[in-house]
Every structure is written in structure tokens, then in C-alpha cells.
């Protein structure tokens, strides 16, 4: 076999691509990994200089994701600005049905966490500085051709183009990139006819480290505790589902009027809404790829599946998939197999498929069930939510889904630990 320029090319250095690169450096330090990222990197932007912004966008991390970040040696730093979710309250607006989850009932410190995306990126960059991972930025992957020994990846940096050979290409540049389509992967997309409005809000009452999932006749909305990891403050991260017209109507309002509209939809569980920050928005779709692998290339993260944010499952699902892929690459190196061999990538796909199918069904069924206003379904929803509170087994199943546990993962504790077996999220 001809020696390639690198072993693995990761297209995209965002949260998914950077996490994969770090996990590979921990599990298989002998691998040569090259990350190609469109945005320039600054060695000066390190966690020590981080100042949280009110308008910072954030991600909900399940308890299972915390376990993964602990294994990567990242959690002690990341937790400095990760707000715990100790309670979850799920309700159906205008009806009596509700269910409540409490981390203490499951002997956990938290059900999950909320962390700023930029903070997570800085923590990952800081760890990656101490690895042998190569970065090419700013640059982008524009094409790929299979070769006898792997793949030949075409790069573009400004006006310059170049190629790099590797055993395998990982597409981790998100669901909106054109690279997936350029390479001929076929997607299935369901448009929910809704948009997610994202903003940080302040309320007169403290969030008390509680997350609220509120289903309304206009669509679901979520409020997640945000701000300090130790003090229950008054800031929450909002995900507000709106139709096209409702979105435009809301965006045209002043901040004060936005708060009034939000109050009318959410209610008074957190007191009065006193401030809403900078709003961003995007259309909501369910996008999946039936065959996310082929010889020499694999899709991960949002490039492979993009979910409705109703249950906060997207990044957590992606993270579990990344760890599954890392374990298959580790085994391939042990068995002297090429990383791009189809049997290696298909093992990853088969192991991850059940997880993403179950997670997609879970998220999608919530939208379809709570999006119906017919009286029989509304009554059934009420009974179901109250039943979760009354039936310990059903409630525990729901809690495990919310915490992102119960799946399979590769244990990656760092070089020299000797701990490389698979284990359950427990």
C-alpha cells in the first residue's frame, strides 16, 4: 500500500469535527489526522480569556455527553461554564397534563447541562493544541476521488487549490454544507413548516436550574437554564417554534413586545419576561441519510442527520456516533485494516443505526403527537404526561432518553489507561 499524506481528513472543525479529532488523538495517537476548517483559527482565543456573552448561542448536553467529555479529559474545564439542568418540566399549554423529572431521583448531579457553543469550541481547541492533529485553516474540502489505496481530497484555500491523499474522508461540516451533495449522498428531508427562533431571555424569577418544555397549539417551546454553573440565576436559553408568518411578525416587534408575546405563549412559571436578546432563526426539518458511508468516506453529525430541537437530542446523538466511529477506527488500526474499508465504515453504521433511528422516532413522534389539536389526541396527551408521573417504569424510560443514556459507547480514557472496551451509558 502506498503511504498517504495523512491517515484521515476531517472536513469541518466545528464541535463535531473537533471532538472527533480529539477523541482519535486520545484513542489512537498513532493516527495522522488532518482537520480542514473554513474559518481561520486564532491561537490567542483560549479558554483563559473567555468572557460569557449574554447573546451567546448554546447547546444542551445530556448526562451521557458529560460522561463522554469526562473520558476525553475535557469536562473539568468545560464544566466551568456549563449550567446544570437539575429539573425538567414538560407540559401541554392549556391542559392539565404535565410530567416532572428531578436529577436527585436518579442519584445524578444533573439531568444535563447547557454550555455556550463558543466556550465548547475554545475548550476543544485548547486540548487539541497539545496533540499531533494538523489543522488547515482557512480552507475547505471541495471534492474527493477514490483511489486504489484510499481517497484523494481536493482542498481550496483562497484562490489556491491542492490535493491531499488519505485512507478516509469524514464529512463533519454540518447539514447546510454542499459537500454532502457534491459527493452524491442522497438525503431524505421532511419539512415541519416551522422555524426555530433562538435567543437568550431574562425573567423576574430564578430558573432554579429547571428546564421547561412547553407544547402549545402553535408548536413547542423550550427554556433552558443558562448563565452561572453554581448560582441559579434569571437567564434562560429560549428555543421558540414558529410558523413562517409568526416568525416574521415576532421579528418585527420591539424587545418589549417580543417579551409580551413570549409571556402569552409560555405563561408565568418563571415570572415576567424582562429581556430578550439577539434573535437568530432557522427552518426546522428532519434530514436523514439512509447510507451515510461508502468506501473511503463517512458522514457524521448534522451532515448525517439533522433533528428537530424539541428534545435537545441532535448534538448528543452526534457525539455518541462519533465515539462509535472512533472505536471502529481503533479496531481497524489494531487489525491492520484501512480506515476507509467499507466493512470498517459499515460496522460503524450498523452500530450507530439503532441509536439514531430510535432518537429520530422519539423526537419526531413528540412533534407529531403534540402538534395535533384534535380533542381525542389532546386527552391522550394529558393522560400520557400524567401517566409518566404515576408510572415509575415509564418515567424512568423517559428520563433515560432525556439524559442520553442506555446506548453503547467506547470507553476512551486516555493514553496508557488500557481502558478501551465498550460499555453502557449508566
UniProtKB/TrEMBL annotation:
Its cofactor is FAD. Pathway: Cofactor biosynthesis; ubiquinone biosynthesis. GO terms for molecular function: 2-octaprenyl-6-methoxyphenol hydroxylase activity; FAD binding. Residues 5-334 form the FAD-binding domain. GO terms for biological process: ubiquinone biosynthetic process. InterPro entries: FAD-bd (IPR002938), FAD/NAD-bd_sf (IPR036188), UbiH/COQ6 (IPR010971), UbiH/COQ6_monooxygenase (IPR051205). Keywords: FAD, Flavoprotein, Monooxygenase, Oxidoreductase. PANTHER family: 2-OCTAPRENYL-6-METHOXYPHENOL HYDROXYLASE, UBIQUINONE BIOSYNTHESIS MONOOXYGENASE COQ6, MITOCHONDRIAL. Belongs to the UbiH/COQ6 family. This is 2-octaprenyl-6-methoxyphenyl hydroxylase. It comes from Marinobacter salinus.
Amino acid at each position: 500500500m502506498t503511504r498517504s499524506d495523512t491517515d484521515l481528513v476531517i472536513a469541518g472543525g466545528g464541535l463535531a469535527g473537533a471532538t472527533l479529532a480529539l477523541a482519535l488523538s486520545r484513542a489512537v495517537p498513532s493516527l495522522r489526522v488532518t482537520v480542514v476548517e473554513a474559518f481561520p483559527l486564532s491561537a490567542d482565543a483560549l479558554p483563559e480569556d473567555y468572557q460569557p456573552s449574554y447573546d451567546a448561542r448554546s447547546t444542551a448536553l445530556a448526562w451521557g455527553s458529560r460522561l463522554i467529555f469526562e473520558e476525553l479529559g475535557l469536562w473539568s474545564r468545560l464544566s466551568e461554564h456549563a449550567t446544570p439542568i437539575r429539573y425538567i418540566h414538560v407540559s401541554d399549554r392549556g391542559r392539565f397534563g404535565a410530567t416532572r423529572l428531578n436529577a436527585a431521583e436518579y442519584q445524578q448531579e444533573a439531568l444535563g447541562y447547557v454550555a455556550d457553543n463558543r466556550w465548547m469550541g475554545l475548550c476543544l481547541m485548547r486540548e487539541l493544541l497539545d496533540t499531533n492533529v494538523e489543522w488547515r485553516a482557512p480552507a475547505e474540502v471541495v471534492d474527493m476521488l477514490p483511489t486504489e489505496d484510499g481517497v484523494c481530497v481536493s482542498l481550496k484555500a483562497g484562490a489556491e487549490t491542492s490535493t491531499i491523499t488519505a485512507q478516509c474522508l469524514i464529512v463533519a461540516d454540518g447539514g447546510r454544507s454542499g459537500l454532502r451533495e457534491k459527493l452524491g449522498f442522497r438525503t431524505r428531508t421532511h419539512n415541519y413548516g416551522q422555524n426555530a427562533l433562538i435567543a437568550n431571555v431574562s425573567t423576574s424569577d430564578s430558573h432554579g436550574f429547571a428546564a421547561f418544555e412547553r407544547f402549545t397549539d402553535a408548536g413547542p417551546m423550550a427554556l433552558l437554564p443558562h448563565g452561572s454553573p453554581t448560582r441559579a440565576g434569571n437567564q434562560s436559553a429560549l428555543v421558540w417554534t414558529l410558523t413562517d408568518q409568526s416568525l416574521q411578525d415576532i421579528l418585527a416587534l420591539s424587545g418589549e413586545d417580543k417579551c409580551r408575546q413570549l409571556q402569552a405563549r409560555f405563561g408565568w412559571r418563571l415570572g415576567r419576561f424582562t429581556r430578550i436578546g439577539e434573535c437568530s432563526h432557522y427552518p426546522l426539518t428532519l434530514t436523514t441519510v439512509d447510507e451515510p458511508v461508502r468506501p473511503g468516506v463517512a458522514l457524521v453529525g448534522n451532515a448525517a442527520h439533522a433533528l428537530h430541537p424539541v428534545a435537545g437530542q441532535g448534538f448528543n446523538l452526534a457525539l455518541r456516533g462519533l465515539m462509535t466511529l472512533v472505536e471502529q477506527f481503533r479496531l481497524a488500526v489494531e487489525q491492520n485494516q484501512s480506515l476507509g474499508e467499507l466493512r470498517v465504515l459499515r460496522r460503524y453504521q450498523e452500530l450507530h443505526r439503532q441509536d439514531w433511528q430510535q432518537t429520530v422516532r422519539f423526537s419526531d413522534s413528540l412533534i407529531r403527537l403534540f402538534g395535533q389539536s384534535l380533542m381525542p389526541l389532546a386527552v391522550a396527551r394529558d393522560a400520557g404526561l400524567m401517566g409518566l408521573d404515576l408510572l415509575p417504569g415509564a418515567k424512568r424510560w423517559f428520563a433515560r432518553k432525556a439524559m442520553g443514556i442506555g446506548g453503547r459507547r467506547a470507553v476512551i480514557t486516555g493514553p496508557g489507561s488500557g481502558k478501551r472496551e465498550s460499555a453502557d451509558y449508566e
